[in-house]
Write a structure and sequence with these properties.
six-stranded antiparallel β-sheet, five-stranded mixed β-sheet, 2 helices, 6% helix, globular
Length: 472
């Protein structure tokens, strides 16, 4: 009897489930279905665009057209006008005592791109994650008020943030290089689009894994770029027109790194020096042979390189890189023909190295932050003599470790931004640094973007915030 009841219950349960399944498949939940044509969802134009279908500079927004300022300070590009990351002002103003005042701040998309400053305006290349867009944003240096913005859609996936590069600005132009190699030139006052370039499409550039870190530099009215593509290793482009003035064939087969082109004089010759993936090269920066490849070497070729070359003397160049690479010393000679020789190279725990920032040569002393694989001085601030790259002459204290943070020299003082958002100030002496103060600026993360300075104001950033401090 009990078995029969169980059979009835099982049969009833099965019947109920069968009815529910038939109802689910036969029922029409909505009776007034309509066809959705493309564009009927009011999605913003271009949001569905693919990464290889980019219209650089297509959107613009002006927020304040009657802006006026009396400020005339300049920080025109990566490492400043002379590419040394050293500022010697003539204002005679001392640094403020006590804590530096925070003048303004604004939020950004995740990234490490740092600003430039020109006549009271601040320019930074941002990435808007909601709109999948690179955005050149212009702000007032005095108030932090946004003046205008020009942007374009370029879908990307986050990879330790997005934007990494610093614009270059001058009279009549502000030029950016986006994470995917898109070059954009705008009028620095109005934001008007002047010209654009797509290094992937036009030169078959291979964008590095962590996106483009190469910052543009301007030399004699020409912006110098290193597409490191199939045809062009390096090129010069007229800042105002976008015309390619000269081009260096990529006979050495280098590909794009995170490092930037640095102009320097070697052997009495103005030269553009670039550390690509595959080696280091020098291109003529003057005369009838401007753009001609002078020398190259593949004896030093890290798989990842972010710091840029540093000129130590009339014929010697310091190279550093992270991820276990360490450092190298190159010697360039012209004796019946140009030649570059790797004089020495060493691992990070055996001498001067830096993972992300570029060292500063200041009064015959090289200032750097040791990488995480730098042995006992890892992440510390350290100073070396150019004559001895293996033994530091000064090292910061045990509790003064800065990670991948940036540093800049201003009027005999070194400002170091710890990568968690704490600012340190040191006086630069003869063969050493003297601690002055430290100040918590933000509870930050990945504060890796280089520091900018003009008109007594210091601009720092972490992965999501830009902050302006009054320091003079």
């Amino acid at each position: 009897m009990k078995d029969r009841k169980l059979i009835y219950i099982a049969a009833a349960t099965a019947a109920v489930y069968l009815i529910l399944i038939l109802w689910w498949h036969l029922r029409m939940p909505v009776g007034d279905l309509t066809v959705q044509n493309p564009g009927a969802d009011n999605r913003p134009a271009g949001l569905e665009r693919k990464a290889d279908d980019v219209v650089v500079g297509e959107y613009f927004m002006s927020y304040k057209e009657d802006f006026h300022t009396e400020l005339q300070g300049k920080w025109i590009g990566f490492r400043g006008e002379d590419h040394t990351n050293i500022i010697k002002t003539t204002d005679g103003k001392p640094f403020l005592e006590g804590e530096f005042e925070q003048v303004w701040s604004f939020e950004t998309g995740e990234g490490h791109a740092a600003p430039v400053i020109y006549n009271g305006r601040v320019y930074v290349l941002d990435y808007n994650e909601q709109l999948n867009s690179d955005a050149l944003r212009c702000f007032s240096l005095e108030t932090g008020e946004e003046l205008w913005r020009r942007w374009y859609r370029v879908p990307m996936k986050r990879n330790h943030g997005f934007s990494r590069t610093i614009p270059v600005v001058g009279e009549g132009y502000v030029i950016t290089v986006g994470p995917q190699g898109h070059v954009m030139c705008c009028d620095p006052i109005t934001g008007e689009m002047k010209w654009m370039m797509d290094m992937q499409k036009q030169f078959a550039s291979e964008i590095p894994f962590w996106y483009t870190g190469q910052c543009p530099c301007v030399d004699d009215g020409v912006v110098v770029l290193a597409p490191a593509g199939e045809q062009a290793l390096m090129m010069g482009v007229d800042c105002l027109t976008g015309e390619v003035v000269w081009q260096t064939p990529n006979t050495v087969g280098f590909t794009m790194s995170h490092s930037s082109v640095i102009p320097m004089t070697l052997g009495g010759k103005r030269t553009y020096v670039y550390a690509g993936v595959g080696g280091v090269c020098g291109v003529s920066a003057e005369g009838a042979d401007r753009g001609e490849l002078l020398w190259s070497t593949d004896r030093w070729q890290p798989s990842v390189i972010a710091p840029s070359p540093v000129r130590l003397s009339s014929n010697r160049i310091l190279m550093v890189a992270g991820y276990g690479t360490g450092g190298a010393l190159l010697q360039v000679e012209n004796a019946g023909g140009w030649k570059a020789t790797v004089v020495e190279q060493y691992k990070a725990d055996k001498g001067l190295a830096c993972e992300q920032q570029t060292p500063i040569l200041y009064n015959d002393m090289i200032i750097t932050i040791a990488p995480k694989d730098g042995g006992s001085i890892r992440s510390k601030l350290a100073c070396y003599s150019p004559q001895d790259l293996h033994n530091p002459i000064w090292v910061s204290g045990a509790d003064e470790r800065f990670g991948l943070g940036p540093y800049i020299a201003i009027d005999g003082n070194l400002f170091v931004f710890k990568d968690d958002g704490e600012l340190y100030q040191y006086t630069i002496g003869n063969g050493s640094l003297s601690f002055v103060r430290k100040q918590r600026i933000m509870e930050g993360a990945d504060a890796w973007g280089p520091i900018a300075y003009a008109d007594g104001r210091l601009i720092v950033r972490d992965a999501h915030n830009v902050v302006c401090l009054k320091i003079k």
